[in-house]
Amino acid sequence: MKHGISYKNFRIRGESFRPTQSSGWIPSYVLQPEKPKADADPSPVCRDRLDEVFDSENAADEFAVQDAKSWIDSHGAAAVDVALPAVMTGGFYVVNKPIA
Fold first, then answer.
1. Is CB count within 10 Å lower at the N or C end of the chain?
2. Is residue 100 part of a domain?
3. What pLDDT is recorded for position 94?
4. Burial code of 50-64, b = ≥16 C-beta within 10 A, e = fewer?
């Protein structure tokens, strides 16, 4: 997917990956508020779902985007008002992961 979509004032980009040529695809996404507060950390946040594996990159990206939307639906308003990494707790989150 590698292109971003807008959802409820956030930008989501699927960044699923395959650790080896013979493994399945791990769903991963990059999440960033489209209009962060002035005092918020502007760094994007990534989440790798290590508990899910898919046969194709597209399927993994679709799952990752739906996972991001679910997270936004549950936490979105709070995430815009504070630094995003501060409210992303639980699961497998990587803060300040380089974006290719």
1. C
2. no
3. 42
4. eebebeebebbbbbb
Sign of torsion over alpha carbons 92, 99, 74, 69: negative
Task: Return the pLDDT at 56.
Answer: 95
Q: Residue 46 pairs with which residues in a beta bridge?
A: 30, 94
| Contact in structure between 2 and 14 (CB atoms under 8 Å) | yes
Distance CA 73, CA 66 (A): 10
List the chain residues with pLDDT less than 50: 81-83, 85-100
Domain count, the chain: 1
CATH of the domain at 14: 3.30.160.350
Summarize pLDDT for 2-11 with one digit per residue, the tens.
678 999 888 9
- The neighbouring-strand residues paired with 16 are none
DSSP states of 30-55: EEEESS--TTS----EEEE-TT--BS
Tokens in use for 34? 């489209």
